[in-house]
Amino acid sequence: MSEPSNGAPQNSGRITRQSGRKTRNDAFVKPKTEYADRSLEAVRARKRQRKDTISAGDNGKTPSTKPRGYPIIEAPIYSSSDAGPENWREVYATIKTMRSQITSPADKFGCEQSKHKESDPKTKDEITDTAVTRLRMAVGGTLSVEAVIAAEESVISESINKVGFWRRKSGYIKQVACRLRDEFESDVPKTLDELVSLPGIGPKMAILILHVAWNINHGIGVDSHVHRLTNRLGWHRKPTKNAEETRSSLESWLPSELYREINLMLVGFGQVICTPANPRCNACELSEKQLCPSANHAGKRSGRTVLATESRRLVSVPRVTVEYEEGTS
């Protein structure tokens, strides 16, 4: 077995070029390491090893013992001395007025209606309403903890198979029912930490549950609509990348008495007016009042409408897919 110049034995399975090279400024470049075993399984094993080394910390020896869970997001936020984005109160009031004049799917089938019809905000509200109705009938007419536990998982799956990720959610429903029976006396938990400990429950859903089930104002429920609209409106110092960053930024300046209502207001507005594709800016008062930096300006550039500010700069609107799974955010 050959040994490198430092005398350390060379790892088996590796072929290391002994000679390094120098760049024009004489900076030494580390010799390239080639692996004899290039099979898919070997490549995956080396990736796992590198990830373990990175997660071990600076010394690369002691594995991290930090529990996995929902991370604390440090978003670019407004300081406590700031009053929030410019004209945000006028923008908020304008959206609220427009919302009072329209009826969205969220108004008919959303989470706020869960006192009568349970809802899952990851799927279109109409689809969820149908799925929950089918599930309620399949388990005997009442979605109680006992009824769900007694039902076969195949019955649950067949009832909700029109919603997204229905196979995974079928298991979550059974697991949550068992946890509620064993740990919470068959009731809904009253704290955010307890709720996010349940399978399939993320921060957004936990906050909405506290709002609706217990009338507890613990924060802002941020879904894809809230994330998209607040970025289009420029309500963050820098564009946020995900729902938790958006929540952290909004809660740094928005008055807490608006935490609960902003979700339903923006969700409905995003479903009807400020849609993900082809927003109806011609029907939006924000565009008319020049309060939206992302308003559509009709143009024929390349045959498409251009999203632009008044200075014609393109506005970058981050795209987000909100998926909450157990142990992830």
TrEMBL record:
InterPro entries: DNA_glycosylase, Endonuclease-III-like_CS2, HhH-GPD_domain, HhH_base_excis_C, HhH_motif, NTH1. One of its GO terms (molecular function) is DNA binding. Its main location: nucleus. One of its GO terms (biological process) is nucleotide-excision repair. It is found in: Nucleus; Mitochondrion. Its EC number is 3.2.2.-, 4.2.99.18. Residues 23-44 have a biased composition (Basic and acidic residues). It catalyses: 2'-deoxyribonucleotide-(2'-deoxyribose 5'-phosphate)-2'-deoxyribonucleotide-DNA = a 3'-end 2'-deoxyribonucleotide-(2,3-dehydro-2,3-deoxyribose 5'-phosphate)-DNA + a 5'-end 5'-phospho-2'-deoxyribonucleoside-DNA + H(+). Keywords: DNA damage, DNA repair, Glycosidase, Hydrolase, Lyase, Mitochondrion, Nucleus. Residues 1-71 are annotated as: Disordered. GO terms for cellular component: mitochondrion; nucleus. Residues 122-272 form the HhH-GPD domain. SUPFAM superfamilies: DNA-glycosylase. It comes from the Eukaryota. Residues 1-18 have a biased composition (Polar residues). Bifunctional DNA N-glycosylase with associated apurinic/apyrimidinic (AP) lyase function that catalyzes the first step in base excision repair (BER), the primary repair pathway for the repair of oxidative DNA damage. The DNA N-glycosylase activity releases the damaged DNA base from DNA by cleaving the N-glycosidic bond, leaving an AP site. The AP lyase activity cleaves the phosphodiester bond 3' to the AP site by a beta-elimination. Primarily recognizes and repairs oxidative base damage of pyrimidines. Belongs to the Nth/MutY family. PANTHER family: ENDONUCLEASE III-LIKE PROTEIN 1. This is Endonuclease III homolog. The gene is NTH1.
